[in-house]
From TrEMBL:
GO terms for molecular function: phosphatase activity. This is Serine phosphatase RsbU (Regulator of sigma subunit). Residues 134-193 form a coiled coil. SMART domains: PP2C_SIG (SM00331), REC (SM00448). CDD domains: REC_HupR-like. It comes from Sediminitomix flava. Pfam families: Response_reg, SpoIIE. InterPro entries: Bact_Sigma-Reg (IPR052016), CheY-like_superfamily (IPR011006), PPM-type-like_dom_sf (IPR036457), PPM-type_phosphatase-like_dom (IPR001932), Sig_transdc_resp-reg_receiver (IPR001789).
Length: 462
């Protein structure tokens, strides 16, 4: 049996001790877990393990350390052994650092501090599985290469026989061969260009996935939840974000201008600002959107001049107090939906609130302000709405890509009435069944039509 090791590098010994215990719980005796307190020491330990014949599938590193930073350390590991899977574990790395690690060190995952043990354990297990799968593919590729070489030799031999038999066609064959070589060169050139573009977009996808909330974070924040996330392209202009700080859960679903690469850049801008929220932040949901709007306008240099590009994002943003069971909501176009049982109090909020009844249920829809997060001709402060969460309330945040999807028999938009009907239909289903029905309904409606926008539907219950 081959010897295997995991290397963890952090300048705080207590973190290394905790991380080692958490990994041993899930890895058992199949791996040894080695630690180092700096990048330089980590490189020494890595070299010694390789010299002793250890296979090192995964290296975990902090970002801020004395001397060598985490992304530089992981790049050195990548240069020594490119197959090793890197994980950046820190509370201080910015998107530039994550991007450097992705580009220079083949970063697999960025996990913010403080982390959840289950998240780290699951990430490492998946990373090991990916590493082992890559080794298996490499072995299979070697076998295929050997088979291809054998086939090529047979083809060459057969070609020589045909050339001998068909000498009278030699001139025509040479002309045809030259034509095929020219076509092949052109094809190779197009494939290289296409691959470079695709590789860049896939790097962006990996960065975007790394900064979206993990499944374990949503599970820890809510008793029940589901997320239906279907980008139109490889990367998405939609994003969802969640953070729990003490007794407050911050959560949102956003739809950025455009989709694909431009939309993804906007989503990273929004996430970068939201990640600055910490325990010292005391603002309400509306103030969060006001500050995010200022940040977007400053970052994009938006002044409101005529003809200026009006990039921005729509968003439904919530802050939930888990002690008082009060949810704050502020919206930039995007509404919040609350499915409530009849007999529970019905809130009197504002003229932006609509109520829909069916059987023993009431669907409450609170509309956001009719303005984006970004430059807008008639900007007003966002409105903050407070709603008391009652027992068995189900809360939905859904981007407009769902109702705007063209499909059906007549090629029309899905529209809001069908969405409300769908929410009533899936109420008594489990969260997984809700996800499956919502996904199936959307894709059945879309049919053979192209998806027009990114789609996100998030449902949760305290």
């Amino acid at each position: 049996m081959r010897k295997r090791a995991i290397l963890c590098v952090d300048d705080e010994r207590i973190i290394l001790t905790g991380l080692k215990k958490q990994l041993k719980l899930v890895l058992g005796d199949d791996f040894i877990v080695e630690t180092a307190e700096s990048g330089d020491e980590g490189l020494e330990v890595h070299a010694e393990l390789l010299e002793d014949g250890y296979d090192i599938p995964v290296v975990i590193s902090d970002y801020i350390m004395p001397g060598m930073k985490g992304d530089e350390f992981l790049k050195n590991i990548y240069d020594q052994k490119a197959e090793t899977i890197s994980i950046l574990l820190t509370g201080q790395a910015d998107t530039d650092a994550v991007g450097n690690a992705v580009n220079e060190a083949n970063l697999y995952r960025y996990i913010p501090k403080p982390w959840e043990p289950e998240d780290v354990q699951l990430t490492v297990k998946e990373a090991i599985q990916k590493y082992d799968a890559a080794l298996q593919i490499e072995s299979q590729n070697a076998e295929l290469t050997e088979l291809n070489e054998g086939l090529e030799k047979k083809v060459e031999a057969r070609t020589e026989e045909l050339q001998t038999v068909n000498e009278e066609l030699q001139s025509l064959n040479e002309e045809l061969t030259q034509t095929l070589e020219t076509v092949s060169d052109q094809k190779d050139e197009l494939e290289i260009k296409s691959k470079k573009i695709l590789d860049s977009i896939q790097y962006a996808q990996r960065i975007q996935k790394a900064v979206l909330p993990s499944k374990s974070l949503l599970t820890d924040s809510f008793s029940k939840h589901f997320i239906f996330f279907q980008p139109r392209d490889i990367v998405s202009g939609d994003f969802y974000w969640c953070r729990t700080i003490e007794n407050r859960i911050y959560i949102c679903v956003a739809d950025c201008t455009g989709h694909g690469v431009p939309g993804a850049f906007m989503s990273m801008l929004g996430i970068a600002h939201l990640n600055q929220i910490d325990s010292s932040y005391k603002g309400n949901a509306a103030q969060c959107l006001d500050e995010l709007r200022d940040y977007v306008k400053t970052s994009l240099g938006q002044t409101g001049e005529l003809g200026e590009q009006q990039d921005g994002m729509d968003m439904a943003f919530c802050i939930i107090d888990t002690d008082t069971k009060i949810i704050q909501y502020a919206g930039a176009y995007n509404p919040i939906f609350i499915m409530r049982e009849k007999g529970q109090p019905i809130p009197e909020i504002s003229n932006r609130t609509q109520f829909y009844e069916q059987d023993d249920l009431v669907l409450i829809r609170v509309k956001g302000n009719p303005q984006p997060i970004g430059v807008y001709p008639k900007e007003t402060p966002f409105a903050n709405v407070e709603i008391k969460i009652e027992e068995n309330d189900l809360i939905y945040l859904i981007s407009d890509g769902f109702v705007d999807q063209v499909g059906g028999d007549k090629g029309k938009k899905f529209m809001s009435p069908k969405l409300r009907k769908l929410l009533f239909e899936c109420h008594n289903l489990s969260m997984q069944e809700k996800h499956d029905l919502i996904k199936k309904t959307f894709n059945d409606w879309k049919g053979n039509y192209e998806q027009v926008d990114d789609v996100t539907a998030l449902g949760f219950q305290l």
